[in-house]
Amino acid sequence: MNQKTLPNTQESEALDVLRHIEFHSSQKSLAAEIGCSVGKVNYILKALVQKGFVKYESFSNSTNKKKYAYLLTKQGLEEKLQLTEKFIARKKKEYEELQLELEIMKKDSFNAKMHSSTKQTTKKLEN
């Protein structure tokens, strides 16, 4: 595994942050957007900054020094693209597995109905 790649357990959360980062100037608003705690967002952002995927600058003329401009780096954009492709591939696979499971359930349901119907017909014939 490339040193700059994220572990699988963090990929989904990192993708959420990478998808929404440029639209937020605070970790609190980003956390609210993606539905996790500010601490979790802070942890993910630190990892993304450390890996070179995100850089940030404080607004020098802002009275609120907790506001930052978060920007994706070239590597961050590449990581976002890779994570998005992996996410889509994972979701396609899940979809295909669910489709197969649904077909099996339909066949099982049909077979159960047929079996039940056959039993009832046999009983009627025996009486």
Outline of this structure?
The protein has 4 helices and 2 strands; from the N terminus they run αααββα. It is mainly α and 127 residues long. A two-stranded antiparallel sheet has the order 1-2.
Q: What does this 3D model show about the protein?
A:
By secondary structure, the protein is mainly alpha-helical. The chain has one domain: Winged helix-like DNA-binding domain superfamily/Winged helix DNA-binding domain (Arc Repressor Mutant, subunit A, Orthogonal Bundle), CATH 1.10.10.10. 69% of the residues lie in helices and 8% in strands. It is built from 4 helices and 2 strands; from the N terminus they run αααββα. Strands 1-2 form a two-stranded antiparallel ribbon. Helix 1 (8-20) crosses helix 3 (38-50) and helix 1 crosses helix 4. The mean pLDDT is 83.
